[in-house]
Structures are given as C-alpha cells and as structure tokens.
Predict the 3D structure of the following.
Amino acid sequence: DFVRVRGAMLHLPGKDKMRMASSSSGEKLVTMDRVLVAATPSYDLYRSDGTKIGWIEKKLISFMDTFDVYMEGKGGFGVTGLF
C-alpha cells in the first residue's frame, strides 16, 4: 500500500503540517506537525486520533539529508537518503 503526503512547508505557525494518508482508502494515517522552537527542522508525529507516537529531527551536520526518527517510549533509529 502506498502513502500519499499532503501539506505545506510554509514555516508559519500552525501552517507547517503534513498529513499522510493511504492512497487506496484515503484514510488519514499520520500528521507531522513542525516544532516551532528547535535547532534543526523537527516534526512531531501524531496518529489520526491525535495521540503522539514520536518525532523526527534533521541532523545538524551531515553530507546528505539525514534524520533521526524516535518513537514514544521505544528509542529511535536513523534514516539517510535523498528526500
């Protein structure tokens, strides 16, 4: 199943959100909401019911786009690639 991402990267309070939905059913799966005060671009991850499930932070120093992904209460992992 593929995921469709919709949103805006305007860097304005309350406007910098992305929503991921299933492309087959259209069901909203996750909302990514930008953290306003952070050293690097960071997003909180929320389920469709509003429960926070984790967050994503972009690495400050890296040769490629590199992100750390953290799950609430479970630790994290890194993601590197072309985005």
Observations:
- The mean pLDDT is 75.
- The two ends are 20 Å apart (CA to CA).
